[in-house]
Specification:
The structure holds two protein chains of two kinds.
Chain A lengths: L2 E5 L1 E4 L2 E8 L6 H4 L23 E4 L8 H10 L6 E4 L5 H10 L2 E4 L14 E5 L4 E5 L1
Parallel strand pairs in A: 3-4, 4-5, 5-6
Antiparallel strand pairs in A: 1-8, 2-6, 3-7, 7-8
Chain B lengths: L4 H8 L4 H16 L5 E3 L3 E3 L9 H9 L9 E3 L16 H16 L24 E2 L2 H11 L10 H7 L1 E3 L13 E5 L9 H15 L4 E4 L7 H14 L17 H5 L6 E5 L1 H10 L11 E4 L6 H14 L8 E6 L1 H9 L2 H7 L3 E4 L10 H7 L8 E4 L2 H10 L3 E4 L2 H10 L12
Parallel strand pairs in B: 2-3, 2-4, 6-7, 6-8, 9-10, 9-12, 10-11, 12-13
Antiparallel strand pairs in B: 1-5
The chains are: A alpha/beta, B alpha/beta.
């Protein structure tokens, strides 16, 4: 078993561990996820029906309305927020605001693409302050 | 971030738990974007919590109970209903009641109850170079571009900036992000850019090309008005997420194209003709010519007193009545509505069968289909809306799901009276 550790831009602090939930397409908190349960409700989404609660979400970028950060904080009030979010592209200010308020570690722009390297379900350790992501395979 | 002694004390709790928490959020925020220090902000335009977003009003009611108050002049953006006239247009009572509780919370926090997307029309005109924080893309772009004040696209942290008077010095607060990136040379005839909706269409065309960069528009005709610049900016921030544009010499920071680029080279240079403006009208027009229409919206962004006067004069001159199948809304802010009432303008519009709406607009109120689903309301029977604003046309299509047409103000008024979209033409000879 090999341990991989790569650097990313650490945006919001937090050292957490969780199962990877890898999405190939841009993700919208407004509309793609149920505000109460944390389940993905977007029709035809590759993880439709799965919960994002406690997961390390890995996806290319956040899309959709700035109202999305309200969804993230609403999820956090019910303890259904993801453990961490890793974006392949740069994070915008709205996403960072939502992650700070929700207490979700946020990293972006990993030094190499993760979407094909980390299968969903892999246990991933994330450090938002150090800007570090590690997993074993 | 490097903090001053005062900022360190605020973070350490010298001014209480509320300020300490707000500073902690703002420091994390600044660190995320490598801000070196805080800017002192002199004004905030706040995202009023709306009762169409679940949990939003409850959250601010809870926050206000901490005793938090704003320390700089703070206006508030639009609500989910007209606080005075909600019962005149079918707003469900629970949406009003919950909204009113949030309004009480805003009041307790010292936030001014302006409830508009155009705070610049009611006296909030920060000077060139002032650091501020604002929500509402059409206000943000006006503050940055026309006035030369400096703001990023505010979000939830507008609250913490308003409570502390601090915002990380980053993004559009810095000179290096305010330079032009793309050059648009207008090649237009004397009749090509007359109506506010022409300016809106021009902005819609350019915004789609530049995305989140800084366009420089060369050749905007002399005599460009406040109404035209509001329309242009709102549309730039609709098809793109443009936060700042330069249209020398009409905008604050650059008297010439050279000054707008400040030594950098344009990434792209394009020419704009009437064909591109027509294409924007076409893109936002999905109603067939001659088809019946059932909604007219003017006032996106919220209309000025002069625009309201125009509408009233037009209706009065013709003794016109709004067609029985048509809901005709003219949206403005509550201060302007009061002035318009004093002028007799509101009476003329409403006697003709229209409604002068304040605090909200069709896409911010209960008519959103997602809100109807959530509250178990019947979905609004809006099939075809005519408007003079690209922003309204674009969002109403998504949020209410109706067909749209973009037309100059006079053509919108013609449609209000006839109940149909008269022709496919965008121009109006009247």
């Amino acid at each position: 078993m090999t341990t991989h550790t790569i650097k990313a831009r650490g945006m919001v602090r937090g050292r957490v561990q969780g199962e990877a939930l890898v999405c190939r397409k841009a993700f919208s908190f407004l509309g793609d996820v149920d505000m109460d349960s944390g389940a993905i409700i977007a029709h035809g989404h590759e993880h439709e029906g799965e919960s994002i609660a406690g997961k390390v979400m890995i996806y290319p970028e956040t899309k959709g309305s700035s109202g999305g950060c309200v969804v993230l904080t609403t999820l956090a009030r019910q303890n259904r927020q993801p453990a961490a979010i890793i974006l392949e592209k740069p994070a915008d200010t709205n996403m960072v605001e939502g992650a700070i308020l929700a207490g979700v570690a946020l990293l972006c722009q990993p030094q190499r693409p993760l979407i094909d390297a980390v299968p969903s379900g892999t246990l991933v350790t994330v450090d938002g302050s150090a800007g570090e992501i590690s997993w074993k395979d | 971030m490097n903090l001053t002694d005062e900022e360190k004390r605020m973070l350490a709790g010298e001014r209480g738990e509320v300020i300490a928490k707000a500073m902690d959020y703002l420091v994390q925020f600044g660190d995320a974007f490598d801000a070196q220090r805080f800017a002192d902000v002199i004004y905030a335009h706040y995202p009023a919590e709306m009762s169409i977003y679940r949990g939003s009003c409850e959250e601010v009611i809870e926050y206000a109970q901490t005793g938090a108050t704003v320390c700089i002049p703070t206006t508030s953006s639009t609500l989910a209903c007209d606080l005075d006239r909600w019962n005149d247009y079918g707003c469900p009572a629970p949406i009003f009641a919950l909204q009113m509780q949030a309004v009480e919370a805003h009041r307790a926090m010292g936030i001014l109850g302006t409830y508009t997307c155009t705070p610049q029309l009611i006296g909030f005109i920060p000077p060139r170079g002032a650091n501020i924080i604002s929500v509402e893309s059409s206000a943000i772009i006006y503050f940055n571009s026309v006035l030369g004040a400096r703001t990023n696209r505010g979000g939830l942290f507008t609250r913490y900036a308003a409570v502390t008077g601090k915002y990380p010095l980053m993004g559009y607060l810095l000179d290096e992000h305010r330079r032009g990136t793309h050059l648009f040379r207008l090649r237009l005839g004397p009749d090509d850019l007359i109506h506010d909706s022409d300016h809106s269409a021009l902005g819609f065309h350019i915004g789609a090309i530049v995305g989140s960069e800084v366009p420089v528009i060369d050749g905007l005709p002399a005599g460009a008005t406040q109404d035209q610049l509001i329309a242009l900016g709102a549309a730039l921030a609709t098809s793109g997420s443009v936060t700042l544009f330069h249209a020398p010499p009409h905008t604050a920071e650059a008297d010439s194209v050279e000054a707008a680029f400040a030594g950098s080279k344009p990434k792209e240079i394009r020419t704009v003709t009437r064909a591109e403006i027509d294409a924007a009208y076409d893109a936002l027009t999905t109603i067939d010519a001659g088809a019946g229409i059932d909604f007219i919206t003017l006032g996106c962004p919220h209309y000025t007193l002069a625009q309201l006067r125009f509408v009233a004069d037009w209706l009065k001159r013709r003794g016109a009545k709004v067609h029985e199948n048509v809901r005709f809304w003219v949206c403005t802010n509550r201060m302007t509505r009061q002035a318009a009432a004093w002028e007799g303008i509101v009476r003329i519009i409403e006697d003709a069968g229209g409604l002068v709406i304040a605090d909200t607009c069709p896409v911010e109120c209960h008519m959103r289909t997602s809100t109807c689903r959530e509250y178990g309301l019947p979905t609004p029977q809006v099939r075809a809306m005519v408007t003079d604003s690209c922003k309204m046309a674009r969002y109403v299509g998504d949020l209410i799901g109706c067909r749209t047409a973009l037309r100059p103000r006079e053509a919108c008024l013609e449609a209000a009276v006839s109940g149909r979209l008269e022709s496919a033409s965008h121009t109006c000879d009247e």
